[in-house]
Every structure is written in structure tokens, then in C-alpha cells.
Amino acid sequence: MSSAGRWGDLGERLGVGAAMAVVALICVWVGGWLFTAMTVGICAVITWELVRMLDPEAPAMRLGIVVGLALAAESVLPTGYALLLLAVPVFYGVATINEHRLTYALYATLIQLAGLGLIFLRLDDGITWMLWLALVVIVTDVFGYVFGRLIGGPKMWTRVSPNKTWSGTIAGWIGAAVVGGVFAAILGVTSELVPISIVLSMAGQVGDVAESAVKRRAGVKDSSALLPGHGGLFDRFDGMLGASVLLLLITPLIGFPFPVAG
């Protein structure tokens, strides 16, 4: 592949990525209802994209709205009621679509859990930990993209994701470790933040590969064409989906968030 072909989409990716980053940073900084609204909207759009890939004949817009409304309600309900409500979009979707029902059920559950995890992280633990998680996922993605194309080498899983290389994958882990080390040093928290950052990086990569498997089964390159140079929101937030769900699940085990010095 020529240099121009290898980096031909970089300018467009950077421009759209910068615009997305500005909007996301504003929402993260303000927090509250604005961050919740952004998260609910993203989860609704991701569901719409997912359903369009799984079953083009299904009412994707309606299912996206159902997931968004359910997530908005779950974010303010007591935990028990929220967990019960989480099942509503799952069963409604299974009864509505005709193809790949199990895949939909799994993703509809994970999308809601990821949304709840992000909302609770920002509202309960503050902007610092939200930025840490976001940077772990972003740096993993950026390092994987840049170093995977610079170094190349053996492919990680050609049948599912033909562009993923082991060099990019390992570079993503290293980038996440750096993010964890920097935050641990600045905040004065335990060095365990470094391996935890690597584990979340891996979870993000699993989310990326899982979405690639869905796209390959659907025979599409991108989840949608909403974001020039990036594809759809699912393409951009697949890593955050995996990382945020894992963080939500392991939080009781690791005693997160860690006490901040000072």
C-alpha cells in the first residue's frame, strides 16, 4: 500500500474527530443533564445502527428510541427498578426483529449497561475519572491506528478484522499504560491504575473486534455514514462500549474509584 493510500483518510478523520472531541469535552465538563442527554443520544443512535445491520427490515429508529428512553429512565430510577427496565428494550426488540435476535439481545443489554456506567461515572465520581476512562479508550484507538499502520506486521484476526495488527494492538496497551501511569502520578493513587488501564484497553479492543464481526456478518464496511472518515457512532464508540461495561462490572472488586491524594 502506498503512503498516500495508507494515510489518505487521515485529514478527514482528524477534522471530524476534533469536532467530536470538542462536543464531547463540553458535555463531559458540564456534566449533569447535558452529559446524560449526550450519552442517551449516542446509545439510541448506536442501537439504530446495530438494528439496521442485523435486520434491514426491522424498525431500527423505533428500537433506538426505545433504548434511549429506557436508558434515560434507568439513569434516575433506583437500581432495582432500573435493572428491571433494562429488560424491556431487549424483549421488545427480540419480539420485533426477525434476524440475529440473540446478537441484538446481547448488544441491547450491553449498550444500556455501558450508558449507565458512563452516566454514573461522571455523576458520582467526577470529571477526572471520566476523562481517565475516555483517554484510555482514545489513546488505545489512536496508538493502534498509527502504530499499526507504521509498523504493520502479523494480523491479529484476519477473518473478523483484516486491518487489525498485533503491533497496533500492543501499542494500544502501551498507550493505555502510559495514561494510567500519568493519572496515578498526578492524582497520587495506587499504581494498580496502570494494569487496570491496560485491562480496560483490552476490553475496548474486544468491543472493537466484536463490532467488526457484526459488520462482517452484515456485509458492510461501516455501521452507518453519519461521520465522514469514521463511519457511524458505533464505529467510534465500540471501544468505549467494551471498556465502560467492564469498568461497571469490576468496580466493586477493585474498590473504584481510588482515593485521590490531597
Automatic annotation (TrEMBL):
EC number: 2.7.7.41
Chief subcellular location: membrane
Subcellular location: Cell membrane
Broadest EC class assigned to this enzyme: transferase
Keywords for the protein's UniProt record, in alphabetical order: Cell membrane, Lipid biosynthesis, Lipid metabolism, Membrane, Nucleotidyltransferase, Phospholipid biosynthesis, Phospholipid metabolism, Transferase, Transmembrane, Transmembrane helix
An example Gene Ontology biological process: CDP-diacylglycerol biosynthetic process
Domain of life where this protein originates: Bacteria
InterPro entries: PC_trans (IPR000374)
Membrane topology, record value: Multi-pass membrane protein
GO CC entries: plasma membrane
Pathway noted in the entry: Lipid metabolism; Phospholipid metabolism; CDP-diacylglycerol biosynthesis; CDP-diacylglycerol from sn-glycerol 3-phosphate: step 3/3
Catalysed reaction equations from the record: a 1,2-diacyl-sn-glycero-3-phosphate + CTP + H(+) = a CDP-1,2-diacyl-sn-glycerol + diphosphate
TM helices/strands, residue ranges: 21-48, 60-92, 104-123, 129-148, 169-190, 240-261
GO molecular function: phosphatidate cytidylyltransferase activity
Family: Belongs to the CDS family.
Protein name stated in the entry: Phosphatidate cytidylyltransferase
Source organism of this protein record: Palleronia caenipelagi
